[in-house]
Design a protein that fits this description.
The protein is an alpha/beta fold and 480 residues long. It has a domain of 331 residues. It is 25% helix and 20% strand. The strands form 5 sheets. Strands 1, 2, 3, 4, 10, 11, 12, 16, 17, 18 and 19 form an 11-stranded mixed sheet that branches. Strands 5-6 form a two-stranded antiparallel ribbon. The chain is globular. About 1% of the residues have low confidence.
Length: 480
């Protein structure tokens, strides 16, 4: 990434809240022209201040010519906006404010994208949520369809698209082992997908000697191993991302049981069409060469064998393996303190490498030449939604935490370092950040890795407030 633009900026005000639809600006700002206003939308004003703190076209600030995103967006280009839309419901709460990127932030960003496009071009809002996410329900809850319809009626020279990029979906169900028979396929990205083989440029090559134990939850491991092995490391990336001129990344400030947190880096998992291309963990405990859980046992190893058998069986109607899995899972929960069976703990070495691989592809992969370039092929910008954040058992069952945080920047790794520091992590110990900022194969490394701008004042990461999030269950030290 551009080393000179690696310092993230933060606006922190715990009084901030999400405005009501249609998320109108707080004031009649000169660059927007005449428009309706909502004096309660202080969030919009804070996003403008983020742009200013990033020194974006500050010579024209508060004039009709202010165009903060012109540094990355040119007229008539194609811009793809990637929010975090993991699921349509939170089992712990009545609303999904702590679960997904709020549409009021998407609205403010789109307004300035439109200005940079000079009112002509293409804007796509896209994600690949969890397989069981009901995309229509989520789109109704977050009002994104209503928002885009307003834009379509107003800006005729811009093509607005809402896109579900998943190829595999699952009907929503209560039990994990009743899901396989509910799988179905859909088109996903109408522009298709690109099979990207990073080969030896993949961060996963360090783990390739154990590739036979690569796993991803709720998929046939035999399919996964055809894409990640000693010879190749393949991802299936949506062409809408690879053909875009600019990526606007709008992640959520949220804890994540497998990565510690979900932010700008982890949000890029959603550019991949099939989950069977995404190694999440290595079966077994560290003393066996795995990173699935703290400590191994015969019972857990037995569970893994039945799990593989269930997801690789040809007869979807057979429920015997599912019943065995339920029994083994209950036995493990009643026997061990370490009940983690999906790589959900701080020792996971796999998902951080998968995450950085996809970030390398998103920003540096030239689909015309089939190569990773040394400089970004696509421009990017990252704005993290931490107004209502998610603590605890994320990313699917977070507890709402009102913190009033916005973080923006041009390097996803430094944005995430600022976020992780405020969550309360020791960033020098987090595998995702270590892979992104220090691994020799990461293209996100930066020389400026020590300072941030907090409410317009330059400070160090170590001076940021620790908001003391409740961490995911196995991200605290436990005795086993």
């Amino acid at each position: 990434m551009n080393k000179q633009n690696s310092t993230p900026v933060i606006r922190h005000d715990n009084r901030l809240s999400y405005p009501a639809f249609p998320y109108l600006p707080m004031k009649n700002y000169p660059e927007l022209g005449t428009t309706e206003c909502d004096s309660n939308n202080k969030l919009y004003d804070e996003i403008r201040k983020l742009f200013y703190d990033l020194n974006l076209d500050i010579a024209n600030f508060n004039t009709t010519n202010w165009n903060p995103l012109k540094v990355i967006i040119k007229p008539k280009q194609s811009v793809i906006i990637k929010p975090n839309w993991v699921l349509h419901r939170n089992p712990l709460e009545d609303n999904i404010d702590s679960l997904i990127t709020h549409s009021s932030i998407i609205k403010a960003v789109i307004d300035y994208v439109i200005i940079a496009l000079d009112y002509q071009g293409k804007i796509t809002v896209a994600d690949a949520p969890l397989q069981m996410c009901d995309f229509k329900k989520m789109s109704k809850l977050n009002r994104i369809e209503d928002l885009l319809e307003l834009y379509k009626n107003k800006y005729k020279r811009i093509k607005f698209t809402l896109l579900d990029m998943r190829k595999t979906v699952l009907k929503d169900a209560d039990g994990a082992f009743q899901l396989k028979s509910n799988q179905s396929q859909q088109t996903g990205d109408p522009h298709g997908y690109c099979l990207v083989d990073l080969g030896q440029q993949s961060l996963l090559t360090e783990l390739s000697d154990r590739y036979r134990r690569f796993r991803v939850t709720c998929y046939d491991h035999k399919l996964l191993l055809t894409h990640h092995n000693l010879e190749k490391h393949e991802y299936l990336v949506a062409n809408s991302f690879l053909t875009a001129d600019v990526i606007i990344n709008l992640p959520k400030m949220k804890c994540h049981k497998k990565a510690g947190f979900t932010g700008a880096l982890k949000n890029l998992i959603g550019i991949n069409g099939h989950k069977e291309y995404l190694p999440h963990h290595i079966n077994g405990a560290p003393n066996e060469g795995g990173d699935q859980y703290f400590k191994s046992s015969r019972l857990k190893n037995l569970y893994n064998r039945w799990y593989d058998r269930y997801w690789s069986q040809n007869d979807n109607s057979s429920n015997v393996n599912g019943i065995m899995l339920e029994l083994l899972s209950k036995s493990i929960r009643s026997t061990f303190r370490d009940t983690n069976l999906e790589g959900g703990w701080h020792g996971n070495q796999t998902i951080p490498r998968t995450t950085v691989d996809l970030n390398n592809i998103a920003y540096f992969y030239n689909y015309k030449t089939g190569q990773l370039e040394n400089q970004p092929v696509r421009k990017s910008f990252h704005l993290l939604d931490g107004i209502i954040a998610g603590e605890g058992d994320g990313p699917l069952r977070p507890t709402a935490k009102n913190v009033g945080v916005l973080i923006a920047g041009f390097n996803p790794a430094t944005v995430d370092k600022a976020m992780a520091t405020m969550i309360g992590y020791d960033t020098s110990q987090n595998n995702t950040l270590l892979c992104a900022l220090e691994h020799e194969k990461s293209l996100l490394k930066t020389e400026n890795n020590n300072t941030v701008l907090l409410n317009s004042a330059l400070t160090g990461y170590n001076q940021l407030d620790n908001l003391k999030f409740v961490k995911p269950k196995f991200w605290e030290a436990i005795e086993i």
